[in-house]
């Protein structure tokens, strides 16, 4: 990083912001894609019924869904079928 800034979660958040885009596992892949496009992001956090993080759906997961199910994946497949879980956590001071 420039100026000797260390790459910590705190540094990343100070540049990116603290807003996190989320989706429920019951959402369709179509809704997930629309969310990714709307927010111009490559992945969305998946929240469980208790609003806790249960995984992450990335553009790569979407591609895998289409490879497995073809065009039918668009509206017939839910996020629950393809998101990656579990995900690692970090604190603000984590490198």
Describe this structure in words.
This protein has 95 residues and is of the alpha+beta class. It contains 4 helices and 3 strands; from the N terminus they run H-E-H-E-E-H-H. It has a 3-stranded mixed sheet. Strand 2 and strand 3 form a beta hairpin. The two termini are 13 Å apart. The mean pLDDT is 81.
The oligomeric state is single chain
> Averaging pLDDT over every residue, what do you get?
81
Shape: elongated
Total number of helices: 4
- Could you estimate the helical fraction of the residues in percent? 25-40%
Q: Please tell me how large the radius of gyration is.
A: 15 Å
Which helices and strands, and how do they pair?
Layout: H1 9-16, E1 22-23, H2 29-39, E2 43-47, E3 53-58, H3 59-69, H4 73-76
Parallel strand pairs: 1-2
Antiparallel strand pairs: 2-3
Which structural traits does this protein have?
single chain; 95 residues; alpha+beta; CBS-domain; 3-stranded mixed sheet; elongated
